[in-house]
Design goal:
The chain is built from 5 helices and 6 strands, in the order H-H-H-E-H-E-E-H-E-E-E. The longest helix is centred in the last third of the chain and has 15 residues.
Length: 166
């Protein structure tokens, strides 16, 4: 069940976390909650499926990372989880996940590399292919051409018990 305090917390969290050493304490102060209460409520909301995940949005371009590439592979379904585990161990891989294939798009394994230049990203890709045994799988490298607005989830209350993701 979602109460008024949960709603206040979700409204505040969807604005983003403050950049400080104890962001949940800052949020708690703004909402007259303790840091422990903020963390407990967020944990409960996640356990109940009202929050899928919390993560950081890094604006790579502003940090000088100009060569941003999504790499996709057509990997055997029974190996995707294992391969994804290997890929995600590399510090330069910022995202790694599986998506279902489509008739016009046969790729099911995805990862993102943010680099200062294309040469570096392509060298890192070669390293991934060799270290993870991906050289035999069809792949595509999709470099970003422009930046889009990045933001977290927007939670819109639909009734007293549920939220939708906007």
């Amino acid at each position: 069940m979602l109460d008024a305090r949960d709603r206040q917390l979700l409204e505040r969290v969807q604005l983003g976390l403050p950049v400080c050493s104890r962001p949940y304490a800052d949020i708690g102060n703004a909402l007259s909650m303790s840091e422990a209460e903020v963390l407990d409520r967020l944990s409960r909301l996640k356990q109940n499926g009202l929050i899928k995940r919390m993560g950081v949005i890094v604006k790579h371009h502003q940090l000088g990372y100009r060569a941003n590439a999504m790499i996709v592979w057509n990997a055997p379904d029974n190996l995707v989880k294992q391969l994804g585990g290997h890929l995600s161990r590399f510090a330069f891989v910022t995202l790694c996940y599986q998506r279902p294939r489509h008739p016009e798009w046969p790729y099911n394994l995805y990862c993102m590399i943010h680099g200062k230049d294309r040469t570096t990203v392509l060298a890192q890709l070669e390293q991934l292919n060799a270290a993870c045994g991906l050289t035999g799988f069809d792949q595509k490298v999709l470099f970003s051409r422009r930046c889009f607005k990045q933001r977290g989830a927007i939670y819109q209350p639909t009734d007293s018990r549920s939220l939708t993701h906007g």
